Every structure is written in C-alpha cells, then in structure tokens.
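Slide 14.
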Amino acid sequence: MIKILLLMIFAHIVDDYYLQGILAQMKQKQWWLKQDGYKSLYKDDYKMALLMHSMSWSIMILLPSMFLIEISPYLLLGAFVCNAVIHYYIDDLKANRGKINLIVDQTVHLMQVFVTWILLIQGW
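Slide 15: predicted structure.
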C-alpha cells in the first residue's frame, strides 16, 4: 500500500509542477487583467482555469488507486469532488488572494494526498 502513497505523491508533483502549463498563469486573475484586449467579460475566467487545474490534479492523485485497488465508485467520486474543491480553494488563496505562500499551499496538498490515501486504502 505504501507504493500507492508514493505514486500519489509523484502524481501530485507531476500535475502541480509540470502539467499545469498555461493554467499556471490563467488561474491568476492578474494574468487576465494584463492581456491585450481584456474586457470585463473575462473578469471571472480565471475561476475556470482554477477549476480545470483542480480537477486535473484530483484525477492525477487518484489514478494510482483506481488501477491498484478496488474502490467504490461513490468513494472515488467523493474523493474526486472533495479534493478538487479543497485544491481550488487553496490555490485561489495563494494565486489570487495572497493569503498563503507556496509552503502552505504544498503542505495542504500533501496532506490531501495522505488523507485521501488513508481513506481509500481503508475503503472508507
């Protein structure tokens, strides 16, 4: 089971650092304001980028579990939704509200991975 945890941590690192691509900029409200041709119509578009990244991250950390252990679809869906919501909120606090730094951001995300791992391997 420790292999699953290590794979989940690796998936976190890959998605949060390597796979974000343009979403890393687009999830920041300030990035949109600096774009040529910005219109107030786009004032909340950063929220969609935050949501897409949060969902991608949640899927990535769940992938090892989906393939290596038997999981109830309801538990899987619950883990996906909870992790996506928490990830969205934490990234917004860092990227847009300036309330937390990268250390807090990453500590919370790693805690998410660990708690998710515990719940999934227990079949909670």
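Speaker note: The chain has a mean pLDDT of 96.
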